[in-house]
Design goal:
107 residues, mainly alpha, 0% strand
């Protein structure tokens, strides 16, 4: 069973893989760490693999995607449930309760 990590390792370098995928080398490092390659890059990678005489096909990429553990897959925009939302940078302005303005003016 080939994983995306194995497929990325078939290229001579991260830079070569990045050039074939049309992305940066630092993004390739992230993909290796996540054990995933986005499907939108697969055709470019297969084209690059053919030019480099590598045995990478659309079928091999699809099998690698299918064999990933379920807990890794998330839907579009899916977030991990344990994460906290980002902190707000500004405070919300709250309106004074009704009736407090007249009381303070009378004092």
């Amino acid at each position: 069973m080939k994983t995306f990590i194995d497929i990325i390792a078939e290229w001579p370098s991260d830079q070569a893989f990045a050039e074939d995928a049309g992305v940066t080398a630092s993004l390739v490092v992230c993909w290796r760490h996540r054990n995933s390659v986005p499907a939108k890059c697969w055709r470019k990678l297969v084209r690059g693999a053919v030019l480099r005489d590598l045995a990478v096909t659309l079928e091999a990429l699809a099998i690698a995607a299918e064999d990933r553990p379920n807990w890794i897959r998330r839907g579009k925009g899916g977030r991990r449930t344990g994460r906290r939302p980002p902190a707000r940078r500004t405070r919300r302005k709250t309106a004074a309760p009704q009736g407090t303005e007249t009381q303070s003016a009378a004092v």
